[in-house]
């Protein structure tokens, strides 16, 4: 009895360990040991069965977590349809042009030895952004015969390597007068302006749906606008400055702040060539001094900052216009 009680006490303290050795002097140890093995095996079997049955429950997330992980993903970005095709011819003028020359500020024929870079063909999203596209078309179509201000003769005034270049800036002319496409006048005193609409799409959240997710994205400059502040204050101001992303990657910093209204269909090699042109980059000490001057409210800091990232070569739009897509002729149906 003493040995049986000791074995039971040992098994309660150590349920998963082997029982004490069998004593040959006591024949009841064989029966006790057999009973102990049976209890231990049943206990191990029950515990293992319970563990296996609860394992799938542990792997499954709680209902609340499962519902949270199944939140609907945002809709994919729209794929706008191209409604119009326009071209921009870019050239380099080895002779000097003023780097702050505004839109259409001088005749491009003033360059005696232009070096053509090539043509960029743009597809415009006229159905998605009709007003923005209409103003861009007007700025590309005017200027040659009507002598209205246009993109023709405008400089590429900013190049950010690996991001974009911009053109179509409106500023002040050589005499200090505002040079804007809606205020220039011809010799008869009539406005030298194309038909520019008041663009209410700049305040419509739907206008910012398309992302700057690929090279060759054509966008209206809003946050990156460099127009002269005196021009912007005019109630008849029309923003026509644009940028083209150069790649190699997307430009998410431009999203929700500039309006994508087109894409490059042909001429990405020309875009890459413009992006590779060296630009003016001030030294780090000058940048720090400029930041401090801007912190103090010095207006000259902003004027100096406007010269940063200017191309060291004079790249300008030598020609622009619309590409008419010929419609196929339908032959009469024969009986």
Give the arrangement of secondary structure elements:
Blueprint: H1 2-13, H2 28-59, H3 63-69, E1 84-93, E2 115-124, H4 130-141, E3 156-160, E4 164-167, E5 171-172, E6 178-179, E7 217-220, H5 229-232, E8 242-245, E9 259-266, H6 268-275, H7 284-295, H8 299-305, E10 314-322
Antiparallel strand pairs: 1-2, 1-10, 2-9, 3-4, 4-8, 5-6, 7-8, 7-9
Domain PPIase cyclophilin-type: 115-322
Protein name: Peptidyl-prolyl cis-trans isomerase CYP19-4
InterPro entries: Cyclophilin-like_dom_sf, Cyclophilin-type_PPIase_dom, CYP28-like
Describe the overall structure.
- The protein is built from 8 helices and 10 strands.
- Residues 174-180 and 182-192 have low confidence and may be disordered.
- The protein is globular, with a radius of gyration of 38 Å.
- With 335 residues, the protein is α+β, with helices and mostly antiparallel strands.
- The longest helix is centred in the first third of the chain and has 32 residues, at 28-59.
- It has an 8-stranded antiparallel sheet. A two-stranded antiparallel sheet has the order 5-6.
